[in-house]
Amino acid sequence: xxxxxxxxxxxxxxxxxxxxxxxxxxxxxxxxxxxxxxxxxxxxxxxxxxxxxxxxxxxxxxxxxxxxxxxxxxxxxxxxxxxxxxxxxxxxxxxxxxxxxxxxxxxxxxxxxxxxxxxxxxxxxxxxxxxxxxxxxxxxxxxxxxxxxxxxxxxxxxxxxxxxxxxxxxxxxxxxxxxxxxxxxxxxxxxxxxxxxxxxxxxxxxxxxxxxxxxxxxxxxxxxxxxxxxxxxxxxxxxxxxxxxxxxxxxxxxxxxxxxxxxxxxxxxxxxxxxxxxxxxxxxxxxxxxxxxxxxxxxxxxxxxxxxxxxxxxxxxxxxxxxxxxxxxxxxxxxxxxxxxxxxxxxxxxxxxxxxxxxxxxxxxxxxxxxxxxxxxxxxxxxxxxxxxxxxxxxxxxxxxxxxxxxxxxxxxxxxxxxxxxxxxxxxxxxxxxxxxxxxxxxxxxxxxxxxxxxxxxxxxxxxxxxxxxxxxxxxxx
Length: 478
Hints:
Blueprint: H1 7-12, H2 21-35, H3 38-45, H4 58-80, E1 86-88, H5 92-100, H6 108-127, H7 130-137, H8 140-161, E2 165-167, E3 178-180, H9 189-206, H10 212-230, H11 270-275, H12 277-306, H13 318-334, E4 340-342, H14 346-351, H15 357-372, H16 374-377, H17 382-397, H18 408-424, H19 427-444, H20 453-466, H21 468-475
Antiparallel strand pairs: 1-4, 2-3
């Protein structure tokens, strides 16, 4: 039992935040299980060749993905002292792999050089106080909308990852974009595992059982391994009723010596040499905007859910969180695994009780172990983790009542913020729509003087962000 006032307690503020070592341990494990899929998924996203035919190699990407995530997560816990785990950001890695790497003449080192430059720029913005100032300029109701939006977003991620909700293929565009299960019917053993996990998670959470989320993940994983051994289901999309990515089976080998040769294999200004200053700068600016606002929104949502914000909705020592996040972009680019950022799946650990950086230490150590045990990480399927994301999403959406719905100047922007996050599968898109709408509606109300000057600047930046497609086409970047 942790002694109140001990060095560990004082360092992580465990008692002050109403937590305990056991809760932090359970939270750390839950967060790791919820986001460990990135060790498997990131190599698949970055598996393509660059414009010259060069490849990063899945084994190398997996090892460095786990290593960078582990180091940054521990740094966030020990220095910033928040339970916000980091890993390669989804969305940014896809943009880097599909759009940036396809530019003629660019090699992977050139591409990752743009990621590093974006991270350095973001670090400068944090150190000058600009990024923190933008965060503080956001109205309280919009901050609450960010929490609600992230709750809806991670719930949708859970439902989609489990195959409970799926995209409906329709070239004519005559149907809704998503539907229940496969063809409107729930099929397959993986779906059963998800439903079992969801029911178990809800039951344990309602009964306030300690370790509810972690117990559910472990139980669903065990069930998944047993079912796959008896009724092999394969993996989607080869089998529509199969597992979404990770097939839950005990690997033949548990330990795999890592190849870390990708670390440092980066050309900082290579893209400028091949594409020119204008085109390369535009690509770097797109990466910067995405990681800048995604992290800000995620940080707000998680801190609110953990009860770690002050009366005005601000996060104490937010600059430290933002500095580590900026370093994540630099480290991810330098390791050729794309920008690392705060993960919304950290909400699984927070739902389990994590309130301090100690949970991050446990999560980070598990990522470091995963560098050697990458085959073992592949045991836990999405379907076993998805129920935790759905339940945590509910917990976050419950804060919707804190929005001032009587003031349309914040209510309409808040609505756009939390609806567009899940509907566009992007935190940044929801933030952008909300910020732009806030400036416009307040102006329509004749209350433009109430808008913080930084909100004008951020809204203008998002107008550019949403207009980047036509701009890039005009410049021949796409």
